[in-house]
Design brief:
With 733 residues, this protein is α+β, with helices and mostly antiparallel strands. It contains 17 helices and 33 strands. It is 33% helix and 26% strand. InterPro entries: CSD (IPR011129), CSD2 (IPR040476), NA-bd_OB-fold (IPR012340), RNase_B_OB_dom (IPR013223), RNase_II/R (IPR001900), RNase_II/R_CS (IPR022966), RNase_II/RNase_R (IPR004476), RNase_R (IPR011805). This is Ribonuclease R. One of its GO terms (molecular function) is exoribonuclease II activity.
């Protein structure tokens, strides 16, 4: 018995040693594979792997020899070893999450299962948005997260940043406003351009040597004292690379264009000047790029014309005007100003469909019956004469009071629009009525009040006829070329079911059912939910969460559909004064109407990608300007307890949207001193370790403002039932 037992122990000891050897071999291979391109001797490998026991240390050289024989490693004449495995190299874009790590999002999603985690030590001085080449390290275990090491920065996304200057006796730093720029920028005192302590500046990166913790930069523009309205708006413009003025050459080209319309030009177009026509826009608008005409036809049907400013008649290819319009790609609407795509001579003058002036237009004209069915349509170049300019509020008043200019035409058009809208939703369109906030500003830009914009029938009237025109233009080209002709489409993919499942869980926490079992009825379920939450405190939060769970709409030459609108084909035709893709659509449309052949798709696809990127930049800048005013507004608001709703929960804090102002702030977990809170990611909630108190998405709470930071555009809150009230912090300026 004893011998068998001893034999068994010896056998287990050998097996244990074998396991240790296999494990050490695996660790050595994984280490060398993870450090592709680098060479290490055996002592360095022992140190890097933190091997401490003498038996394992002694085994490293022999294991390296075996790995060399098997071809897993190579050795140079100096006895330094390196990996022979061909790693996976991927091109992607950096998303710098926090100072500790970033993700690289692969350009080609099929190359890797998900994004690649890159730790700060392996960033190779890459910054957020940079295009990089990353080496994907071997997975640690079957279910590990892909990790990588950046080998090369292919293209910097930006080399200019906006920030606040901090000056010491011997040197200076610029602390960037951009939240994803985690490095302060060193500036030699001679490169400050006269900037003073605490001023906002634009700084350009000039050098970042290997081994340096921080990049070096040079101030290129001094914006002024932090906290002043004009300085902060200019900071946002500089942060997102928005232009401060219109360049001289394209502006001069615009000013040289004649405002005369020749008889020859009018004869080449369909003349709508004698048909009642009007524009409906915001009260403060100056660039009227769409008008509607209306008349009853002899057969009793109705003719509705959607007339769009003919921008491409004035902006010709290969001109400075065209180049600048393409570069900007869209007008940007900040809280206090518009940064136009086109110079004022065109946007507010020649192309603007002002009343009592003949104007050149591109039109989509519908013959409709009284049930809003389109009997036939016509698309082509026209000339119009607007009889009346309405502000939205004025046109709505005429409908409501059944009096005033064009009240009968407006009423009939409104009835048609309601039928078109109902039909659209019956076919599966999704009804997102997002909450929009507008600020009342004084002459210095200080926020005096906040208005939540209300969408009335008149807004929906204009929306429906613009959607109809965009849809028919896209379908006209698709059918004409049987889907093969190059064209610019506005597409919106079907939602990802996994994201929708997550959103469904959010909705349930607010007490709403969202059924996604039947994929064909997703839009019906969404519309039912959107109707339920109208006017409720959680409306804005759930709408934003729903939108985030959807795919992003984009411009492309691929003739795909638009999920949100439930259209097989859709484009942007109706806003060429403020969107470059609409100009592209006008050019291609005219080309095909003249009998032209399909151009190369690649060139137009590149323009689509550029336009989608510029659209995102504009949206980000607009949000930043609104957030800035929200922070300033709350810094000036009455010190009181506010009702709010928990709009987000993370491991580091609770986001709360204040119901009265629609401003969002955060309560930091580190400041919640009534208990230690654990983050339950699956259920999006915090749970108190002792009290078991839960803070969950959708909870109605009371909060107070404790600090506002203009630079970072953040609002710090605390729960109003916190007994130890903190003194309120002033806005950092």
């Amino acid at each position: 018995m004893g011998r068998k037992s001893d034999r068994k122990k010896t056998k287990n000891k050998k097996r244990g040693h074998s396991n240790d050897t296999a494990n050490l071999t695996r660790r050595i291979v994984q280490f060398l594979d993870s450090n592709y391109g680098e060479e290490f001797n055996s002592k360095q490998i022992i140190k890097k792997l933190e091997i401490r026991d003498s038996l394992s240390k002694g085994a490293v050289d022999s294991l390296l020899s075996k790995l060399l024989e098997s071809g897993h490693v190579s050795k140079n004449p100096r006895n330094y070893y390196s990996s022979t495995k061909d790693p996976n190299f991927i091109i992607g874009t950096v998303d710098y999450v926090n100072p500790r790590f970033a993700f690289v999002i692969p350009d080609d999603p099929t190359q890797n299962d998900g994004d690649i985690l890159v730790k700060e030590a392996d960033m190779k001085q890459a910054l957020d948005g940079d295009k990089v080449r990353v080496m994907v390290k071997p997975l640690k275990g079957k279910f590990g997260k892909s990790e990588g090491k950046i080998l090369e920065i292919i293209e910097r996304d930006r080399d200019e940043f906006v920030g606040r200057v901090e000056i010491s006796p011997r040197f200076a730093f610029v602390v960037p406003d951009f939240k994803k720029m985690h490095k302060d920028i060193f500036v030699h005192r001679g490169d400050l351009l006269g900037a003073e302590h605490n001023q906002k500046v634009v700084v350009k990166l000039t050098e970042w040597r290997d081994g340096d913790k921080n990049p070096t930069g040079k101030v290129t523009r001094v914006l002024g004292q932090a906290g002043l309205h004009e300085v902060e708006i200019h900071s946002i413009m500089a942060e997102f690379g928005l232009p401060f003025e219109y360049p001289q050459e394209p502006d001069a080209e615009a000013n040289a264009i004649s405002d005369k319309i020749t008889v020859k030009e009018i004869k080449a177009r369909k003349d709508f000047r004698d048909i009642p026509t009007f524009t409906i826009d915001p009260a403060d608008a100056k660039d009227f790029d769409d008008a509607i005409s209306y008349q009853v036809l002899p057969n009793g049907n109705l003719e509705v014309g959607v007339h769009i400013a003919d921008v491409t008649h004035y902006v010709q290819p290969k001109t400075a005007l065209e180049k600048e319009a393409y570069n900007r790609a869209t007008s940007v609407y900040l809280v206090d100003r518009t940064i136009p795509m086109l110079p004022e001579r065109l946007s507010n003058g020649l192309c603007s469909l002002r009343p009592n002036e003949d104007k050149l237009t591109f039109s989509c004209v519908f013959e409709m019956d009284r049930d809003a069915n389109v009997i036939k349509h016509w698309i082509g170049r026209t000339v119009i004469h607007s009889d009346r300019r309405f502000a939205y509020e004025e046109a709505q008043e005429n409908i409501d009071s059944q009096s005033g200019d064009f009240f009968s035409e407006l009423t009939l058009l409104n009835n048609l629009a309601k039928k078109v809208r109902k039909r659209r939703f019956d076919h599966g369109a999704v009804n997102f009525e997002t909450v929009e906030v507008k600020f009342k500003l004084d002459e210095k830009g200080t926020p005096l009040g906040l208005i939540v914009k209300e969408r009335k029938d008149i807004h929906k009237l204009i929306e429906e006829f613009m959607l109809l025109a965009n849809k028919y233009v896209a379908e006209f080209i698709f059918k004409k070329g049987k889907g093969t002709d190059t064209f610019v489409y506005r597409t919106h993919d079907s939602p990802d079911m996994e994201r929708l499942d997550t959103f469904s869980g959010f909705a349930k926490r607010f007490g709403h059912e969202f059924d996604i079992e039947n994929e064909r009825k997703i839009s019906t379920a969404l519309n039912k939910l959107m109707d339920e939450i109208q006017g409720k405190p959680e409306q804005n939060v759930l709408e934003q969460l729903a939108i985030r769970s959807m795919a992003k709409a984009k411009y492309t030459t691929e003739p795909k559909g638009h999920f949100g609108l439930a259209f097989a084909h859709y484009t942007h035709f109706t806003s060429p004064i403020r969107r470059y893709p609409d100009m592209m659509v006008h050019r291609l449309l005219d080309h095909y109407l003249q009998g032209g052949k399909s151009p190369d798709a690649e060139e137009w696809e590149q323009k689509c990608v550029h336009s989608s990127e510029r659209e995102k930049r504009a949206a980000d800048a607009e949000r930043a300007s609104i957030k800035y005013k929200q922070v300033e507004y709350m810094s000036l608001a009455e010190e009181k307890d506010y009702e709010g709703i928990v709009s987000g929960v993370t491991e580091w804090g609770v986001f709360v949207e204040i119901s009265e102002t629609k401003c969002e702030g955060m309560i930091r977990v580190q400041d919640m001193d009534d208990d230690y809170y654990d983050f339950d990611q699956k259920n999006m909630r915090l749970i108190g370790s002792k009290t078991k108190k839960m803070i969950t998405l959708g909870d109605k709470v009371k909060v107070r403002v404790v600090n506002t930071d203009i630079d970072r555009r953040t609002i710090d809150l605390e729960f109003a039932d916190n007994e130890g009230k903190k003194p309120r912090g002033r806005a950092i300026r």
